[in-house]
């Protein structure tokens, strides 16, 4: 009996989980055995972390157990922190698991592979700015969102009781920063006294951007649409603010300083530090693994990388593809299609990215974005159509992860859920 070809996917983010689910769906036919590895036991769609932080989660399936998904889709799940890849032995080393008291709960172990895909994601870069690590929150994982929400709720209760508005400063005007600001304004309403007139603001929100304009590199129509809606939400935006340090209770630049009860650092993305320790990968300036047009690393034909962990510069382009869920999803779909053929020694076409646009959800102020219809004719959209397009992004993810039948049922359950719509979530 021929042994199944072992594919190990490191990281259960949007790209890694979609890849594992798709490969497992054809495992029997293609002679594959698929294993997904992640340090935590459940999947959270990262584009919604700002909603978890603000407490305005609307989907019942924003978080789902890897163990349940593994049983449902037919892959194996191994929980643990990835320490290293032994390329000669073709094994991935997972660290031992310890409890809160330091007691050893599970020994370190090796997971064997024939093909390995690194999809460990990325993290928010601090650019060496003093004080970020100790005095700011970066929304890289659910634990960060939980920590933010706990502090935010306490501050809002204090603001309601004292009449002193809480001050939140967000560094970075990308999608994470702008969407978080808008959803915090939605969450603020839950603390108003319904018996009387709405009070003065309980929350002051400021977005600081180092560049001369918000969302640098984005289309002018999109920037104007976002600025207009942020103004309607009474969110202050300061550009040209090159941050020199983040202090406890204050953010500083050469030109000024801003008091902050909470500072959120959302200024750019880089590869996880573990990528430099995994193996002798060639990394780009942001610490991401360089890959070719087939998403294969240049040091080992058996190891691929995708998503925020990968650095791919397509022909004719000057910069690598951006670290977005859209890119990761397309790369996952590509690998799901070509890996079985590559394993059999067939020649496959290179990966090509199709930019479907950029959408930003701004809570009560609506959704704005660009619908990608080609490089020269992107269309600016807003209103209900833009909101539907934004929601469709997660619907597509649910479909890819859960499969057509279960994905359709999950989408229907979300649509008819009585919890649908902005609501303050104080727990969980």
What does this structure look like?
The protein is α/β, with parallel strands linked by helices and 428 residues long. It folds into 3 domains: 194 residues, FAD/NAD(P)-binding domain (3-Layer(bba) Sandwich); 139 residues, FAD/NAD(P)-binding domain, CATH 3.50.50.60; 48 residues, no CATH class. It contains 12 helices and 26 strands. The strands form 9 sheets. Strands 5-2-1-11-22 form a 5-stranded parallel β-sheet. β24 and β25 form a beta hairpin. The longest helix has 21 residues. The protein starts with a strand and ends in a 12-residue tail after the last helix. The C terminus is likely disordered.
Q: Which properties best describe this structure?
A:
single chain, 428 residues, alpha/beta, FAD/NAD(P)-binding domain, 3 domains, 5-stranded parallel sheet, 4-stranded parallel sheet
Q: Within the largest sheet, what's the order of strands?
A: 5-2-1-11-22
Q: What percentage of amino acids are in beta strands?
A: 15-25%
User: What profile does the largest beta sheet have?
Assistant: 5 strands, parallel
Q: In CATH terms, what is the fold-level topology of the largest domain?
A: FAD/NAD(P)-binding domain
Number of helices: 12
Helix amount = 25-40%
How many independent structural domains? 3
- For the record, the CATH architecture of the largest domain stands as 3-Layer(bba) Sandwich
Give the low-pLDDT segments.
Answer: 373-390, 407-413, 415-428
Number of strands: 26
Query: Can you tell me the overall shape?
Result: globular
Alpha-carbon distance between the two ends: 47 Å
CATH top level class name of the largest domain: Alpha Beta
Taking Cα atoms only, what radius of gyration do you get, to the nearest Å?
22 Å
* Average of pLDDT: 83
The named CATH superfamily of the largest domain: FAD/NAD(P)-binding domain
Class by alpha and beta content:
alpha/beta
């Amino acid at each position: 009996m021929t042994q199944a070809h072992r594919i190990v996917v490191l990281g259960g983010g949007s790209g890694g989980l979609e890849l594992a689910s798709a490969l497992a769906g054809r495992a029997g036919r293609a002679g594959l055995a698929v294993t997904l590895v992640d340090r935590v036991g459940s999947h959270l769609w990262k584009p919604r972390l700002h909603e978890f932080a603000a407490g305005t989660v609307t989907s019942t399936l924003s978080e789902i157990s890897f163990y349940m998904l593994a049983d449902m889709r037919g892959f194996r799940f191994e929980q643990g922190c990835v320490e290293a890849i032994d390329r000669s032995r073709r094994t991935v080393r997972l660290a031992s698991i310890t409890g809160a008291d330091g007691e050893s709960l599970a020994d370190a172990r090796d997971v064997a592979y024939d093909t390995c895909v690194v999809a460990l994601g990325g993290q928010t870069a601090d650019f060496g700015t003093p004080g970020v690590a100790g005095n700011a929150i970066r929304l890289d994982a659910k634990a960060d969102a939980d920590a933010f929400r706990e502090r935010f709720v306490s501050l809002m209760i204090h603001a309601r009781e004292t009449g002193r508005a809480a001050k939140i400063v967000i560094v970075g005007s990308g999608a994470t920063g702008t969407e978080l600001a808008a959803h915090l304004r939605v969450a603020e309403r839950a603390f108003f006294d319904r018996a009387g007139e709405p009070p003065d603001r309980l929350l002051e929100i400021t977005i600081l951007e180092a560049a001369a304009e918000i969302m640098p590199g984005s289309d002018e129509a999109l920037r104007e649409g976002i600025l207009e809606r942020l103004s309607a939400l009474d969110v202050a935006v300061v550009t040209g603010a090159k941050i020199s340090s983040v202090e406890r209770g204050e953010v500083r630049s050469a030109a000024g300083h801003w008091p902050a009860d909470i500072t959120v650092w959302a200024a750019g993305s880089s590869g996880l530090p573990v990528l430099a320790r995994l193996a002798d990968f060639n990394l780009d300036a942001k610490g991401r693994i360089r890959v070719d047009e087939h998403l294969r690393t240049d040091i080992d034909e058996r190891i691929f990388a995708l998503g925020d962990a990968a650095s791919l510069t397509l022909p004719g382009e000057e910069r690598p593809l951006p670290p977005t869920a859209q890119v990761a999803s397309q790369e996952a779909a590509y690998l799901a299609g070509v890996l079985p053929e590559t394993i059999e020694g067939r020649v496959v076409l290179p990966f090509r990215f199709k930019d479907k646009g950029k959408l930003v959800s701004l809570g009560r102020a609506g959704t704005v974005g660009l619908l990608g219809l080609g490089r020269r004719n992107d269309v600016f959209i807003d209103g209900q159509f833009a909101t539907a397009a934004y929601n469709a992004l997660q619907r597509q993810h649910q479909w890819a992860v859960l499969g057509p039948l279960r994905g359709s049922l999950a989408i229907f359950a979300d649509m008819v859920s009585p919890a649908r719509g902005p609501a303050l979530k104080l727990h969980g």
